[in-house]
Amino acid sequence: MTELKNVELExxxxxxxxxxxxxxVLLGFGLVFARLAYxxxxxxxxxxxxxxxxxxxxxPIVPNRGLILDRNGVVLANNYSAYTLELTPSKLAxxxxxxxxxxxxxxxxxxxxxxxxxxxxxxxxFESLPLRTRLSDEExxxxxxxxxxxxxxxxxxxxxxxxPLGEVGAHxxxxxxRINQAEKEKIDESEDAANYRGxxxxxxxxxxxxxxxxxxxxxxxxxxxxxxxxxAVRRLRSSPATPGNTxxxxxxxxxxxxxxxxxxxxxxxxxxxxxxxxxxxxxVSKPSFDPNLFVDGIDVExxxxxxxxxxxxxxxxxxxxxxxxxxxxxxxxxxxxxxSGKRGPHQVIFDGGSFMFGNHxxxxxxxxxxxxxxxxxxxxKSSNVYYYSLANEMGVDLMYEQLAPFGFGxxxxxxxxxxxxxxxxxxxxxxxxxxxxxxxKWYAGETISLGIGQGYNNFTMLQLANAMATLVAGGExxxxxxxxxxxDVVSRxxxxxxxxxxxxxxxxxxxxxxxxxxxxGVTQEGTSTRVFMGAPYQSGGKTGTAQAVGVRQNEKYNxxxxxxxxxxxxxxxxxAPVDDPKIAxxxxxxxxxxxxxxxxxxxxxxxxxxxxxxxxxxxxIAASQRSETSAPxxxxxxxxxxxxxxxxxxxPSTGASAPAPTAxxxxxxxxxAAPAIATTPASAPASAPAAAGSAPLPSExxxxxxxxxxAPRPGSPLPPAPTPAPSPVPVPAREPSPTLPIxxxx
Length: 746
What we know:
By secondary structure, the protein is α+β, with helices and mostly antiparallel strands. The chain is 30% helix and 17% strand. Strand 18 and strand 19 (494-496) form a beta hairpin.
């Protein structure tokens, strides 16, 4: 049979299918057009910005760091550019394998690997990190021809900090180091976050740290068009970086270098101040260190040598080392007596060689005394008995009231971080410093040795020099400062760091004259007569000998029987000229004995340099280093004709290119703006450190000593604290005794 088809039904079904298909097609196109409209219209701004960001990369331009100059224009810190081999960990599939392959092209030492691993711990995986720094031109060429093998690895030109004079003035200048995680977080929370985009280094110590904002400059940027593979195609626009400002110090670096040379291998500190302005002329801490070692991460060996040295080269003794002032305290005690009315200049005390307090005998000059002593003679001949009895009459709290205004036991406010307060004792201080009730009580016998600068008295050389400047200036006070002016390298504008006057002390001119004349007598007929023999100017001074350890009542001090670190400290304070002081200073040579033997000769050479423009002979410098001379010997030289010492170059790590010799330190004329960069990409200069394994910075290690330091360093200055902030109340190195002290004091 023939099957009959329902054509109408078939056509109806076909039409339905076509309509459904057409509807689906229209729906699909509708969705496409709707999505297109959503993306092209509603989200146009957002997506166009994202697309532009994929096409355009904004690269920060790190500014050249500002120079640091001394008062005469000598460059103390500058920059140079060198090639670095850098890796971006997030772009590498196998980091260790990549480094192994790179080591076949350029030399990568074990120290480089350790430093890179340490940088990775403190950085994010997408940041570019240097594996090798200061590549030679040959190494750059070798890598360039094989660059295609190493995606995520690139050659960059980076700026490096350089300290041309090496160890000279290192504690003042400071150094820069790579920004750690804590510093990153602090920067991100500050208003300077945008200005530190792309910056890897920051000031860590000294002027580099305290004047970071002036030295850093303003970060620029450039917009670069990139390909899909991330390669730069062309630069679209840019905003140049603004170099950091030039910081001019009040330090005379030649004087600084002379003092450091005079110390030789001895330890100590010297601070010299202009009493009229508060400018610091020399700020010496010995031994010192080479700041170039820290710029790119100090290697483990050098860090261990610095951190574990018994001489503590990382300790800024001028700022953080506290010492008993010894007899250099006596002129201030005399002024306190005059101000308080406890004694007049002509009142006479009998010095029989010792002072009895109860059953305890405080010794003076051996077994003999000075006889009848007035105030003038007590300073000239350094009578201990005079000041034992004066301290007993005044009492500790009156002494505090009279001496604190001179800055003892107070922060001077100098313009670098890390200053410690020291200790000027009082009954209130002792109650705060100790916990147990029997320790908090002040015993009358503890007052006696304070009169000669012993006991709890502990001050920095900065405080002692600042107090001397205040005293000889008749009570005029200025906040000591190390920076003289700031120079804008763009506008060439000079901004003087204003002399900050502090309310003067109410000192009577006749009283000041008594002290000045007595200290002048010290150099003419007193304890430093031989040192200042033949000086072409009139100066005043005071010798001091401070105990590092106590001596029992029935024993005598014998330096030859003691280890070096247990011997007395040698101190001297000085000013000149007598009638119009232009310089005041305080100097200490640790464990060097009598003040006139080691400290006073250094002070004499400083005054000769500053007032007469005279530089000691090589023979005299060598004898001074051994404490074998008083007045200068040999033929002196004109200071202007003596060259600055050359810096000692850091030892390059294995595989680093041999550095070229460093030229003599540049001098920037006072009327010109200093350039912010010294060279084009090249090998490192001699004074720049080689790439090496990284280690903790001094501020991140070196824990403070316990209250009772272990042998062989009792009586040594406090070590650096973990943070630069000084403690509010330093705890003395020894605990008080509930009984009267039984010591021999000289």
